[in-house]
Specification:
Blueprint: H1 4-7, H2 10-20, H3 30-46, E1 74-75, E2 81-82
Antiparallel strand pairs: 1-2
């Protein structure tokens, strides 16, 4: 039996990471999920892993509202918001300037306005 560590070399790992991170995607999105799962299955099969099985599961995932970004701010007594956090990630590289990039969000957190006194 071939050791996975033997076949998963630096070059194959780098190639896989580049493919898996080539475009933005969020877990559970059907279109991307199918192509990524098929890619991983093919890689594992090529590495010599036998009987690779793909199973589908129904899971509850939390997704952000793209037009209503989460943010954190300090609200003064008069209601003025100050120290507002970024609502979008900064675009460092032009490849990041993609409408499919998900804005930062805190999955599974309750909506609300927490207060500190």
């Amino acid at each position: 039996m071939i050791s996975f560590l033997f076949v998963a070399t630096y070059l194959s790992t780098e190639k896989s990471y580049r493919y898996l991170t080539k475009k933005p995607h969020i877990a559970g999105e059907d279109e991307d999920e199918v192509s990524l799962v098929n890619y991983i299955k093919t890689q594992w099969t090529e590495f010599g892993i036998e009987n690779v099985v793909v199973r589908s599961y129904k899971v509850l995932l939390s997704y952000p509202k793209q037009n209503d970004s989460n943010y954190v701010s300090v609200v003064l007594k008069n209601g003025t918001e100050v120290d507002i956090s970024q609502k979008k990630e900064l675009v460092i590289d032009e490849e990041q300037n993609n409408p499919n990039v998900v804005n930062p969000y805190n999955a599974y957190s309750a909506a609300g306005d927490p207060e500190v006194r």
